[in-house]
Amino acid sequence: MSAQAPQEVTHQAVTRDQQNVKVAALLTIATITAILAGYFETTWSMVSIWERSETFAHGFLIFPFSAYLIWGQRKYLGTFSPQPSPVGLIALAALGFSWLLATLASVQVLEQFFLITMIPAAVWAILGNRMVWALAFPLAYLLLAVPFGEAFIPPLIDFTADFTIKALQLTGIPVYREGSFFTIPSGNWSVVEACSGLRYLIASFTLGTLYAYLTYRSLTRRLVFIALSVVVPIIANGIRAYLIVMTGHLSDMSLAVGVDHLIYGWIFFGFVMLLLFWIGSFWREDDKKDDVCLADPQQGAHIPGGGNSRQRTVLAAGTVLAVAFIWPLFAAYLDGDLPVDVESTIEIADVSEKWRRDPGHVSDWNPRYVGATSELRRSYRHSGNSVDLYISYYRNQQQGAELVSSENVLVPESESYWRNVREDVRNASLRSRQLTLNQNQLGSPSTKLLVWRWYWLGDESTASPYLAKFVLARNKLLRRGDEGAEIIIATSYEDKPDDAASVLQDFIADMMPAIMTGLENANAR
Predict the structure, then answer these.
(1) Pick from 47-51, 211-215, 269-273, 476-480: least confident
(2) Closest by alpha carbon to 40, among 401, 325, 320?
(3) Which of the ends of the chain has fewer CB neighbours closer than 10 A, N or C?
(4) pTM of the model
């Protein structure tokens, strides 16, 4: 027998560890693929949104971009040996439980967010701290695959309307405003969802984040450029909206009043983004070889993984799958535990000594609620005042048939001549307690309405859609059922909404017991 030279032994150890790294990488990819497949409904919900929405079509590119960034670091990553992390496994379990809560609450965007964040958690659990830190940006970039941003539409609409109206006034053009609708001497305008600038903002942030990572090495410069990629498109969209209104005004409403103003918008946005990237290129650092992980031989040195590295990696991958798959199985169990759906009818007893049923209605306005188990629309009258009562009741809630949903609206954007002029939160007195509710002022060419609305969830009432979702998730997790309803009351007014508020206050003080009894009876059926 002949002894091996130390150099040969070291070379064999390095070769073995490099093979372990490759095996660990393949196991990690297979584990992530299995997780995405196991959470098929959530994964497909993202893909379907990418397919049908131009705003989120960039989602198809996020995974390839992230894979390309990881592939570019393959030589550096090969210097690490897998070091499975129990902390990553704990993070994965926490994210899985959060996904369960989001599923029970039917909050699709949070389901998608927690599923995507499970990917870096799985990498962390299988490959360890050093590896997940080296992959921090490509893994974080995956979050942009989640089709999020609709919550920003209302504030973006408000900013665009404020910016446009202020610019018009500075130009010397008189403006009359109601919410996001405004009138100038040449015609009527409104800032709707397509004009909010959300598409520009998401496109700018997605490209700007990638550009900052590839172009700069300094964290400060990266953060500054990313911040600019958020601020610039918002301001640019305000300028775009002002220029479109001015084009329409100066052309006697013959230009920029149809789909062409969207085309002008993309041309303007493209110019602004090119200008932003061109200015940002003056401070580029991508040509500097100051990457510490490559320049420092100690940080780039190979760390032996030991003889049992492969076994530990396989065990870690199996444990990750076991922890990840607990939650969809538990969600399926809770769904199977729901009661058999039966038809529910809401009946409000005529027990009031003041408010009596009225065959007519205050107006022709009717809110749109999708997938309600039962709906009630009724009108009441007292001392010359009329109040319309609307109740949308939900049971066995699921995507497309849920109490709190963006599909449930007071005024459809393009299908009604009603306008949602203003919205705020207020308190109303209800015997010995205060009831917090949402207040809306609606308007049509002939009628003004004051609307009060709030959510009923068994023993609890709230005006917050977020709290309503939380209560729903808690009730389903504790197997208390998922029944809920939105109660809406509306009355008309001439000039002062406060006059209508006193009418609605009187109505709920007198009719609330009968309404609560009707909902509880519907729940018991």
Answers:
(1) 269-273
(2) 325
(3) N
(4) 0.83
